[in-house]
Design goal:
The complex is a heterotrimer of chains A (361), B (318) and C (440). With 318 residues, chain B is mainly α. Chain B contains 13 helices and 2 strands. Chain B is 71% helix and 4% strand. Chain B has a two-stranded antiparallel ribbon. In chain B, helix 4 runs parallel beside helix 6 and helix 7 packs across helix 8. The radius of gyration of chain B is 21 Å and the shape is globular. In chain C, helix 2 crosses helix 12. Chain C is globular and about 60 Å long. Classes of the chains: A mainly alpha (361), B mainly alpha (318), C alpha/beta (440).
Amino acid sequence: MIYREAGQFKSNYAADMAVFPLRQDRIGIFVIILLAYSMAYFGSTFMLQAVLIPFLIFALAAIGLNMLVGYTGLLSLGTGAFMGVGAYACYKLMTIFPGVNVIVWIFVSGFFAAGIGVIFGLPSLRIKGFYLAVATLAAQFFLQWTFNRVPWLYNYNVSGAIEAPRRTLFDVHIVGAAATPQARYIVVLTIVILLTWIASNIVHGRIGRQWMAIRDMDIAAELMGIRPFKAKLMAFAVSSYYCGVAGAMMVFLWYGGAEYNVFNIEQSFLILFMVIIGGLGSLIGSFFGAALIFMLPIAMGAFLPAIFAPLGIRVGAETIEHLRFMILGAMIIFFLIVEPHGLARLWQIVKQKLRVWPFPY
Amino acid sequence: MNLLHQIFVEPFLFMGEAPDLLLQVLWEGFVSGILYALIALGFVLIFKASGVFNFAQGIMVVFAALTLVGFYAMGVPAILSLALAIGVMFLLAVTVERVVLRPLVNQPDIILFMATFGITYFLIGFGELIFGGEPKQMITSQLMLPEGRTNLEIAGGFVTIQHIDIAAAAIAVVMIATLGIFFSKTRIGRALRAVADSHKAALSVGISLNQIWVTVWFAAGIVALVTGIMWGARSDVSFALQIIAFKALPVLILGGFTSIPGAIVGGLIIGFGEKIAEFYWGPLVGGGIESWFAYIIALIFLVFRPQGLFGEKIIERI
Amino acid sequence: MSLRLYGIGALAASVFAASAAVTAAQAQDGIYVPLLSYRTGAFAGSGIPIADGMHDYLTMLNERDGGIGGVPLIIEECETGYDTTRGVECYESVRGNNPVVMNPYSTGITLQLIPRAAVDEIPVLSMAYGLSAAADGTTFPWVFNPPVTYWDGASVFIKHVANVEGGFENLAGKTIGLLHLDAPYGREPIPVLNALAEEHGFEVKLYPVPAQDMQNQSSVWLNIRRDRPDWIYLQGWGAMNPTAVREAVRTNFPVDRLVGVWWAGGDEDARAGGAQAAGYKSLNFHGVGADYPFMDDIITYVHERGLSRFPRDRVGDNLYNRGIYNSMLIAEAIRTAQEVTGNAMVDGADVRLGLEAMNITEERIVEMGMEGFMAPLAISCENHSGHNEVYVAQWDGDAWTQGTDWMSPLTEFVRPLIEEAAQSYAAADAGWPERTEACP
């Protein structure tokens, strides 16, 4: 009864192929976006700065990686490094051309990440599976080394860190110490919505279908006339573009500065978790995965002391840290066992139930 | 021209000028190679038998060593601690099989790979919770491992050889030989090779997959313990050591995911290669190339031989 | 199926409930002092004694005096794991509770907090770490790095080398190596070493150690063997230090020519080298051992009441003392702030005034029971570090001893460099806020 589909007729093919064929879904998305924007006014500073902004940025990176791992079936462990390429490219562009608006450079920096991604994607034409995963680790370690040992990249800063200079959009500070979390949140949210919309169109279109054909059986796809060379490198390019933009946003709209260690292998794994827990080959799953993996430790940090305090057990910050690790590990295994297809599959099941409710089928 | 001279002439001249340093570099490469090979060996054992890319091998090394040192710190005699640490690794193998592998049977490889991440995180938290986060010294002398070092006078210089490194090499050789005999001569070993060939065929002739998995995880745990003792003796036992797992991955590419001799040869190639490259060519680009050099070797190698040095040829059926 | 749904539903609900709980900041009575500490991760070996030292001194003030000026201190630790991201997350989570001073305990985190300090009006106390240029109070009104900066430290090291070698004129032609962690922290002394090298004609060789190779330094030490530097300055942290000392012993490097910055002066760092590490040196700015009157109070009020997590027999560890020194600075800043403003409850802006007016005289040191533990210290509005005296401690194989007399840094050489660096820092960030009120 929640979904009343009666009376919604599709009178042409385009309507039938729409991303959101149901009116209720369209309304739902609209309401969610509205709510997301209203959080800029209702959310506390902590909520925006430490929860929502990073969540959106990680979700974008997860979408990027999902296009590679989930849609094309190419396992990559170099996400962190590609994010770093975006961040450093953005930093260089911002400082060389301070007159151009920072938003432009955030989008442009993605192209640098895409270029590097294509280069490191070349081995994917020969190898696949875990061999490819290890090959992408080469990108991770090599690029991280570059961020550290090529001083030109951080403008010969003595500390080796890049710092966000003050930049404005419509005379409102959005980058640098003077930018409020509210302003940054709105910018991040807008970019993420825009890129998610584009991603949705890519994966539902010709390119996305090519990727999925490659993923399901690359030899068969080749026989059907899909060029693996083009499709795979395209996947690396688009995926790295998204990761690069996410990396640039991470440094300039979230941290406000970074050193080479930020783009380490842990970052790559974190985003891979989000993709797998969220659901391979699902855009909404990327959001779910980012929410769970990023917010779970924060929530536990707040929750665990509250659980232990009434029992009279004094837990130190480090015990909580250990428990966080243990629970995160156990949770990953738990989720893989109960739902290997990720949270996106659960969402599908729930949605299916809602569509037929109150009838069982 | 000057650059070419720096790349192709000077390092070799320097090798000739300071033979003691060259020997030291080679020895360091050899020792690192052995240790990389040991970690890779743990990976290979598990991958061969269950097709799981066990990311947790690095943390198992730390966890095993930490358990050993931790028991000793609680006042248990060294030999008994060793036995207890082996017991803990066995428990770990049983638990992993029961809690992680069995429910995830028949899932895609990537899901199992992710599950080993879960194991990694769990073991990091668990290990630190029980034994504390501060680095601990390995109980080298209590385990009757040699300490100290010998300085060999060579060509006006000296080469330092730590006795523990000689022991590490010897133990590695013994362990590989034992594993080799175990796999080729014993019943379980042959069953294990059958499982590696085909799960279904092995099941149909009455081999228990669960038993095999416990066996290989236990074997990998023992390998991890030995690796942990050796690394721990070179520096302290702490969670920073888990990073060495990443050093073993290029070794796997080079040697193939399923080949034990491949792990040894790959380990040695990477060990020698990265130390020589770092020492003689690293300064040209600012040093620190050790962190990625092994990967680049492996990557170039992959393009020509995607299945590794000793890996089986990948045959794809449509 | 149902179990699955229930489990996941409950989890999702708890995530949302918890994130709501996080946002509700709790209001308490007292002066809120958050401590960013790290007891986990690769740097826990150095982080644990410091965290305990900081915690125990402040707890002692609470137990013995009921806080400072009658107002209890609310001490809260936040675990950073020496990770910049986690540190910033900690900062965000404690910021709502009106902290009076931030102790980032990581140069990386400090660098992130420096631009925010002025905006959020919370002073950053980076005791002998962080950005050396922050000693310039006119450019960085909210950042403090007493008692000395890394640049001062490097200059003291060179001074010590000159003393041993028989004068600055003998430095010409020498090679001095900097073995450092490849992070902002490790790179701090490079500019001042280079400037001193130009002045005195010695050569500086850099040996960076990436964080992931902290315990695998064999290549770096091969390079050291090749270059044969006369002295090595060790700017390391965590597991890097014991490994470096051990490798120095192994490569027959004379350990009395290996001088660590104060952060490389942990007891465990030196002990790792075994008997042959006797002679290893490190800079220090507070007393060694536990033989001071105030330590008895810490034992009585904290350890005997079971409020400390630090092993009783390790009290007096160098890094434990370091944590105490840091807490002493916090406490004195709050006390001075109360005196300056006349309020018992102080906030971040007040504590900043307290830090700028801080003057710890000999009498005050005796009053605190710290005679012999610390040198007098004064911070001013322009000078946020003080460039105070340090000495070279030496490891005797079992404990740290005072190796040399207290000596002052080459302030007249370092101070202009600091002011220049502060200018260029502010210039690189157009719109850097000016100091709101002029120095008196």
